[in-house]
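Summary of Year 1 activities. Much of the first year was spent building the evaluation harness for sequence design. The harness presents a backbone, in tokenized form, and records the residue chosen at every position. We chose the following record to illustrate the format because it has been used consistently in internal testing since the harness was completed.
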């Protein structure tokens, strides 16, 4: 699990909405945010892989974050977005989210570590950030996109 960067006092996160929950994605990994578009299906991939898209000549696998995190599935809406993240091991991966809300800057000392039990959903979190009264579950992208 990646340690929170302590050299800087704060980290910026893109806040996304999935159902009633807010999830934060470290902005340093975000390459692009695009509207939902038609994906090309790929046979024999994990059920949470929606398919691939062609973005400026690059083929990018698209992951349904709801399905990966075992949340109830919903229809895509006008607010549905694909967040393209760039990771060292996997390269570019698209994550489907219900909505992109805002960018927030969280002080490192406002982020609580998550203690793990056998609950799978927590394995995708690196912590929980406090933004005013709201709690934002901060995604550990390497855990989310790994098999």
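For this record, the design step produced the sequence shown next.
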């Amino acid at each position: 699990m990646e340690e929170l960067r302590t050299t800087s006092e704060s980290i910026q996160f893109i806040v996304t909405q999935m159902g009633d929950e807010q999830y934060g994605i470290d902005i340093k990994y975000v390459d692009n945010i695009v509207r939902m578009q038609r994906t090309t299906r790929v046979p024999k991939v994990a059920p949470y892989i929606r398919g691939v898209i062609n973005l400026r000549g690059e083929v990018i696998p698209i992951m349904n974050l709801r399905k990966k995190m075992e949340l109830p599935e919903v229809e895509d809406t006008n607010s549905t977005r694909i967040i393209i993240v760039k990771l060292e091991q996997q390269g570019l991966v698209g994550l489907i989210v219900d909505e992109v809300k805002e960018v927030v800057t969280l002080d490192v000392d406002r982020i609580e570590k998550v203690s793990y039990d056998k609950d799978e959903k927590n394995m995708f979190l690196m912590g929980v950030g406090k933004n005013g009264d709201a709690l934002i579950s901060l995604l550990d992208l390497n855990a989310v996109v790994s098999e």
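The CA atoms of residues 8 and 108 lie 8 Å apart. Quantitative recovery figures across the full test set are reported in Table 2.
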